[in-house]
């Protein structure tokens, strides 16, 4: 996720590669990012924290505590650093507690389409974050897609919907393409058509402002092909499955947060 966000922001012109320093325990990941996009690499977490005034924390939720405890040992003034966490489920209060309650923290949940400038992100600021911090984070995520500010109690729902949602949509695209292949299309043409169909439908919702149900009704002629297909989706529980997927991902995000507090 960190890679997608940084690359997207650089390509959008919101960040300069010269201003980005990356650190990962997997040095090959940093080398790849540096070679392909011109960012600098830090040799250690200490070097990263002492060099940068904004830290984008993109570790797995289970590793957040270890990373923050190490940062706390550096003696860096927490007020100097803006810490943006994209770790699923990890609350602002738990992050602040790790670094003595003084950190400027913003909890965010972007998604991987930020890599192509089509991301969806939400964030919530901690009590110590400044208005300038909020403006910076909003601008950063807006440069790679859409961004909204929400209360922290809704961040797990954001994780379940837009954070995890691309994975659900990829399965849908694959399934549509499989249907095309089953109906006689080549794999290449079926995937191309399925991808463009999902992209086009999403763009219609975004640009017309019409409710998806109304747009759906506009496609369904009486006794036609679309309503026959929709009837099959309803019969097999497509709508329910999509709702359950978001709810399951939301519950998992909540569980991850509870295990870290």
Automatic annotation (TrEMBL):
Cellular component terms per the entry's GO annotation: cytoplasm
SUPFAM superfamilies associated with the record: 6-phosphogluconate dehydrogenase C-terminal domain-like, NAD(P)-binding Rossmann-fold domains
What PROSITE patterns does the record point to? Answer: P5CR (PS00521)
One GO MF term on file is: pyrroline-5-carboxylate reductase activity
What transmembrane ranges does the database entry give? none
Question: Which top-level enzyme class is recorded in the Swiss-Prot or TrEMBL entry?
Answer: oxidoreductase
Q: Which UniProt keywords apply?
A: Amino-acid biosynthesis, Cytoplasm, NADP, Oxidoreductase, Proline biosynthesis
Q: Which domain of life is it from?
A: Bacteria
Q: Which GO terms describe its biological process?
A: L-proline biosynthetic process
Residues forming the Pyrroline-5-carboxylate reductase catalytic N-terminal domain are 1-89
Q: In which pathway does it act?
A: Amino-acid biosynthesis; L-proline biosynthesis; L-proline from L-glutamate 5-semialdehyde: step 1/1
- The EC designation for this entry is 1.5.1.2
Which residue intervals define the domain Pyrroline-5-carboxylate reductase dimerisation in the entry? 152-254
Reaction(s) catalysed (UniProt annotation): L-proline + NAD(+) = (S)-1-pyrroline-5-carboxylate + NADH + 2 H(+); L-proline + NADP(+) = (S)-1-pyrroline-5-carboxylate + NADPH + 2 H(+)
Specify where it is mainly localized. Answer: cytoplasm
Compartments, record wording: Cytoplasm
Q: Which PANTHER family match?
A: PYRROLINE-5-CARBOXYLATE REDUCTASE, PYRROLINE-5-CARBOXYLATE REDUCTASE 3
Q: What does this protein do?
A: Catalyzes the reduction of 1-pyrroline-5-carboxylate (PCA) to L-proline.
The similarity annotation says: Belongs to the pyrroline-5-carboxylate reductase family.
Q: What is this protein called?
A: Pyrroline-5-carboxylate reductase
Name the species this protein comes from: Roseibacillus persicicus
């Amino acid at each position: 996720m960190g890679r997608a966000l940084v690359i997207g922001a650089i390509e959008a012109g919101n960040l300069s590669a010269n201003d980005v320093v990356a650190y990962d325990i997997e040095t090959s990941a940093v080398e790849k990012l540096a070679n392909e996009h011109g960012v600098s690499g830090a040799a250690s977490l200490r070097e990263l924290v002492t060099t940068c005034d904004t830290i984008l924390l993109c570790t797995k939720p289970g590793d957040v505590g270890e990373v923050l405890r190490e940062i706390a040992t550096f003696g860096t003034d927490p007020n100097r650093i803006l810490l943006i966490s994209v770790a699923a489920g990890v609350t602002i209060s738990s992050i602040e507690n790790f670094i003595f309650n003084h950190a400027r923290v913003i909890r965010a949940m972007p998604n991987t389409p930020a890599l192509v400038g089509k991301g969806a992100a939400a964030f919530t600021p901690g009590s110590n974050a400044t208005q300038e911090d909020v403006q910076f984070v909003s601008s950063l995520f807006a440069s790679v897609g859409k961004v909204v500010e929400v209360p922290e109690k809704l961040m797990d729902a954001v994780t379940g919907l837009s954070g995890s949602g691309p994975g659900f949509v990829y399965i849908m695209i694959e399934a549509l393409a499989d249907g095309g292949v089953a109906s006689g299309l080549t794999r290449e043409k079926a995937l191309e058509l399925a991808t463009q169909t999902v992209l086009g439908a999403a763009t219609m919702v975004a640009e017309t402002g019409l409710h998806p149900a109304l747009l759906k009704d506009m496609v369904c002629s009486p006794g036609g092909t679309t309503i026959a297909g929709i009837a099959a989706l309803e019969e097999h529980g497509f709508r329910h499955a999509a709702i359950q997927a978001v709810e399951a991902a939301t519950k998992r995000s909540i569980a991850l947060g509870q295990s870290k507090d």
